[in-house]
Amino acid sequence: MEKRLPRSAMIFSLGFVFMLVCAVGAFFYGVKLGTSKTETKYEMKELQAAKVPDSSPYQQQDLVSFYHTVFLPYREFQSDWDAAMSEFAQGKPGSASSTLKELAELAHSKRTEAASFDMQKSPLLGDAQSNYIRSLEQFEQAARAAAAGARSTDVSKLQSKIEQLDSYRLAARKALDAQQAYYAAMMKWGATVEPNIPTDYTMPKVIEIKKWSNLPLIVKNKLMADQLASREQLTVFYPQDLTSRIDDFISSGQPAKLNLKSVTAIADLLIDTEAVRSGDFSENRSKLYKQALLPQLPFFS
What we know:
Shape: globular
Largest sheet: none
Number of helices: 12
Number of domains: 3
């Protein structure tokens, strides 16, 4: 004859089984919830980390966009301007008046091109863009003013006369201000990539050679943009060309022989003796700057 469990024992057994099922369910639900929260937290961190570069107004893409849409149009104009001024200085025959009118039209078209892309989200690039646009505007005025009196002026003296115009002087100053801002923006980009690069570095009155030698290349270039701006002198060469000539000059031991104790004095000597050429940086890069951080811009290649 079968023995039946008492009713109370059956209820207790069923209750125990139910509680065991609930406990196991709660355990797996807790594991799933914890895993989900961990994954969500991790995904949020990844998303925030991915957004950090976007919050910086000085990304490499901004520097590249500025180069092609603002800087390059200006440099194309400057190249034609320098070629014309060189011909005037050499007294080469030709129609100076028509050449200057063409330069005025070129300055106008390049100004329109430089203004076609909005760089104002990056303060320094916005300043550089505004200054390049104003520079081209003043170049246009200088070219038109010079064209009006070109026929009555000796061609060999035309360049000197143009450089005395207020519009030309303002054009040169605005171009140098723009160059300063562009190279300062490069340095700010560099500071987001390497911790040893400062976001700001003001050019001191005297730069000691030892201190200069310990500076990152991107900071040196910015300081040379400052140096050129302080001279209020337009040059065909870039700040990095001057930087590389200074570094090459220092490595040769020449400063000690000439009793030059500051980089400022070396820069003055090299510029005044016309010892800096466009392309000097490219020639010296593999020798002097193999590991140096620079944005991927065509004029650093």
